[in-house]
Amino acid sequence: MREISREEAKRVAELARLALSEEEAEKMARTLNQILRYVEKLNELDTEEVPPTSHVLGITNVMRADEVRPSWPIEEVLKNAPDKEERQFKVPAIMGE
Amino acid sequence: MALFDKRLQEIQQDLHNGEYKVADLVEESLRRIEEVDGEIHAFLSVNRQVMAETERLQERLDKKEERGLLFGLPAGIKDNIVTKGFKTTCASRLLENYDPIYDATVTVKLKQADALILGKLNMDEFAMGSSTENSAFQKTRNPWNLDYVPGGSSGGSAAAVAAGEVYFALGSDTGGSIRQPASFCGVVGLKPTYGLVSRFGLVAFASSLDQIGPLTKNVEDAAYVLQVIAGHDPQDSTSAKVEIPDYLSALTGEIRGLKVGLPKEYLGEGIDHEVRQRVYEAVKVLEGLGAEVMEVRLPHTEYAVATYYILASSEASSNLARFDGVRYGVRVEGENLIDMYKKTRSAGFGDEVKRRIMLGTYSLSSGYYDAYYLKAQKVRTLIKRDFEEAFQKVDVIVSPTAPTTAFPIGEKVDDPLTMYLNDILTIPVNLAGIPAVSVPAGFHSNGLPVGLQIMGKPFAEATILNAAYAYEQHTDHHLKRPAFERGVRS
């Protein structure tokens, strides 16, 4: 098994939008390697001919009628937002650098 | 007999006969919470508006108006099931201020059945854990011994029922999170078939595995609550369109000729010998009632935990992407948008949640998807097939619910893999999507409860509940209550 390094743990954290300190990255790499070593046991099984199960009920897409329906009142939707302005969620500037 | 010790159906009859008032039920619960929750720490919030609702229900009772199945019964709800009007935190700092604007379908159904929602119950953060030590707010304690965990992640729900704080509770079960705490706390916990109970309004952990179910004092009460919460919901695209039987009339206690499978893989190494002994004793009871017991094989059991942690973590990494500090929850300001996301998520999530997000992100990332995620999906098929083959021969399968009784607080919290292995007997059920119930099966010499797990075919809740009921009618384990008093540890 390829071991996850501290640098790789930091790369994965970046993908997951988490910030890890050097110490946290070290600890995370250690526990993830421990878990992945255990997960290696799945390779004892030959699954070449086995189809994957993504859903136990074997259901297919459910489409509802494409109709205009009332939505939540905007004040309610914004009620829990940490920051808002007028009728919108407010976030730090995305463009401009 | 204390009000709490009565069956839910019995309480309905007593209310009808005017033997007591709705307020008496609520007052008993509130008194009990006041007495014991300072020790148990099962509640994250108590609904103080409940007395006003009590008066409204009493008026309806006095006028002899129609009543719902759970009329006037104080219930607790795990804090990952949304409740309009009071906070739903998932026991996470990230959602500590979240006040939902809608009710989960199960919350609506409880209200329609006239239950009274007394409060929200503690859990492992975002339902990730097997001990309720991963809550950001408090550690729930096991009412049978306050130095031990109640199990997880529905530990608050199980402990609240065991300690007599609520008449019943709802939990959620992704890898055993209803059954394992039920086993540790000596109550009944039912994980229904995937799709039987709507997940609309359940904050998703692993969407292909999560299922809501009841925790109760006895099997009849579990059937009673299931009757209310089961059924198709157009708001949940994974909800199954199946006819809901009358679960209560299915409880005949007659199991003559029932074929009971005993899987060798669930009774071997790693299972505490006294736990195994209690299960063999339970099997004898079932045999004495005319059940036919035979050995079955579930050969891929040893791969279930590895499969589960890849799949559940992958789904979690995707589901928890929504917690970014934009639309709800707590925000930590950053220099730019990405920095804000990272700071918010890093401050808001606890260690276990971060670990699973990392594991899931890694498993789904380019170059590793086939080796981990796809491989686990294929092994899931093998585990599901094991059950399909076993159920060709038997009607139900029995096993211990957990390999051991509850463990001491702090024992496994720094050792995630050992903690994960505690769920080895419950996880395969979620991977296969089948129903299973945990019922009290006696005690270990350490004084802690042991749980018996009864698994069934998809949508065969009536069969497993009847087998559990038959067992319960011939034992008295479910009648035992933890004997602790305020400030005194048993």
Description:
The complex is a heterodimer of chains A (97) and B (490). By secondary structure, chain A is mainly alpha-helical. Helices cover 34% and strands 4% of the residues of chain A. A two-stranded antiparallel sheet of chain A has the order 1-2. In chain A, helix 1 (6-15) packs across helix 2. Chain A is flat. The mean pLDDT of chain A is 92. With 490 residues, chain B is an alpha/beta fold. Chain B is 37% helix and 12% strand. Chain B has helices at residues 8-16, 22-40, 50-62, 105-112, 155-162, 179-185, 219-229, 273-288, 304-319, 337-348, 351-364, 370-393, 416-421, 427-432, 461-473, and strands at 43-46, 74-78, 116-121, 168-172, 188-191, 212-216, 259-263, 292-296, 396-400, 436-443, 449-456. In chain B, strands 1-3-2-4-6-5-10-11-9-7-8 form an eleven-stranded mixed β-sheet, sandwiched between helices. The longest helix of chain B has 24 residues, at 370-393. Chain B is globular and about 65 Å long. Chain B starts with 7 loop residues before the first helix and ends in a 17-residue tail after the last helix. The model of chain B is unreliable at 486-490 (pLDDT under 50). The interface between A and B is large, with 50 and 70 residues.
Q: Features of this protein?
A:
heterodimer; A: 97 residues; two-stranded antiparallel ribbon; 4% strand; flat; B: 490 residues; alpha/beta; eleven-stranded mixed beta sheet; 15 helices; 11 strands
Summary, kept brief:
The complex is a heterodimer of chains A (97) and B (490). Chain A has 97 residues and is mainly alpha-helical. Chain A has helices spanning 6-15, 22-39, 74-78; strands spanning 84-85, 88-89.
**Number of discrete helical segments of chain A:** 3
Shape of chain A, please?
flat
Secondary structure class of chain B reads alpha/beta
Determine the N-to-C terminus distance of chain B: 22 Å
Classify the helix fraction of chain A into a percent range.
25-40%
Arrangement of strands in the largest sheet of chain A: 1-2
Task: Show unreliable segments of chain A.
Answer: none
Strand pairing plus helix content of chain A: what structural class? mainly alpha
Oligomer classification: heterodimer
**Which protein chains make the most extensive interface, counting residues with beta carbons within 8 Å of the other chain's beta carbons?**
A-B, 50 and 70 residues
Rg value of chain B? 21 Å
